[in-house]
Amino acid sequence: MQDMSSTNYDLLIIDLFFNEQLAFTATEINQLKTKANGGKRLVISYMSIGEAENYRYYWQPDWSSNKPSWLDKENPDWAGNYKVNYWNQDWQSIIYGNDNSYLKRILNADFDGVYLDIIDAFEFYEK
Asked: What was the pLDDT predicted at 2?
């Protein structure tokens, strides 16, 4: 974190989690909002909405053998990332809309915004 704090970049895009399971706190994110020169910067969180990642807090150990209906094929280019039926309510409730959702955790950590990844997931299902 010290490495990021000591920069003068206007924008940081980082993951909510470091070491895969430990989330940054609001205090830590707010510290990153001030550049080394005293200026202000935006801190944005990364969040994949088109793939489930097997190293995220929401991943259930039994999904490997008893996967939910919305969980699809593993991405051959990114081990541990699985396509999802993003229109499915169960997947959506993991991502947003409740106090345990991924988005709520990002908001609670006081990020300035969210970078949504895999927004082109529809291309996988067009075929």
From this structure: 79
pLDDT means per 10 residues, the chain with 127 residues, are: 91 91 93 97 98 95 94 96 97 96 97 97 91
Give 3-state DSSP helix, strand, coil % of the chain, rounded to 5: 25, 25, 45
Nearest Cα to 18, choosing from 45, 41, 36?
45
Q: Are the CB atoms for 15 and 86 separated by under 8 Å?
A: no
Q: Assess contact for 126 and 118: CB atoms under 8 A.
A: no
Quote the pLDDT of residue 54.
Answer: 94
What's 79's DSSP letter? T
Q: What architecture is domain 2-126? A: Alpha-Beta Barrel (3.20)
Distances (CA, A) of 115 to 46, 55, 112, 119, 120: 5, 19, 10, 10, 13
For the entire predicted model, the pTM comes to 0.90
What residues contact residue 68 under an 8 Å CB cut-off, 6+ apart? 90, 91
Indicate the domain borders of the chain: 2-126
